[in-house]
């Protein structure tokens, strides 16, 4: 009888060990499948970036077999779609930088002010209401911003202040792009300030500092790396904006610093050529990829600078 009981117990133990090993094997299999799935998802963006670079470089090489890279980088005339062709990208680069600078001049102070309010002054209810509304600005289709700038901002607002302002102008483009990228500055700066430990605030209060002193002299400096990174990322996003520049800025590739004039940015030129203004395989068509590669390299450099700024000035708590 005792031997039977011992045998039954041993059999039960073997069953438990078998079921346990089977459960562990199933768990490991699920973990490997999940890991492979997530790895594949992360590789999609990498593969897409490689394909984009390869396509741009391939077509750009064909372009630069006909056009000197020195002329491309230093020329002051861009008349690729005209009878007399010039391939200097400086007019497009100048317009892109001007509109992006105006955008950041609008987005940086407004976004930082919004971030300070949301992080340091707003209650939970106000924060829960205002932050989604603010982030909705970046979700509005950019074509809406473009037509809003063309049919309301320029004729109804700006012309009251600047009577000789053209219907297409760089100023309206920059202002609208500034509204578009403001949520980037506000959201990232808010997150950076929220990450500042509460102990730093309490220490400043214990020394007799007032609320605005704590915000401006403790919280903002402690979150400076995140704030600077948000501004750099907003500038990179502004440089890549297409529809606002194409609709409100026009297609006039001139080298000018007058924001009242119509200007053509690099993204708006790409949009113009991509709509069929240049037949496939022509020098005009290949110029699209050269401009795209140049823009991509600039934005990639800005993103790299943003990462370096965060790493250089980041304060770890």
Please, could you describe this protein's structure?
The protein has about 325 residues and is an all-alpha fold. The protein folds into two domains: about 1-65; about 70-315, MetI-like (MetI-like fold, Orthogonal Bundle). It contains twelve helices and no strands. It is globular. The mean pLDDT is about 85.
Provide keyphrases for this structure.
317 residues, mainly alpha, MetI-like fold, 2 domains
Mean pLDDT: 84
Strand content: under 5%
Low-pLDDT sequence parts: none
Question: Can you tell me the CATH superfamily of the largest domain?
Answer: MetI-like
Structure, briefly:
The model has no long low-confidence stretch (mean pLDDT 84). With 317 residues, this protein is mainly α.
Describe the SSE topology.
Elements lengths: L1 H63 L4 H6 L15 H32 L2 H13 L5 H20 L8 H25 L3 H9 L4 H12 L1 H16 L3 H7 L16 H12 L5 H31 L4
Helix pairs in contact: 1-12, 3-6, 3-9, 4-6, 5-6, 5-10, 6-9, 6-10, 7-8, 9-12, 10-11, 11-12
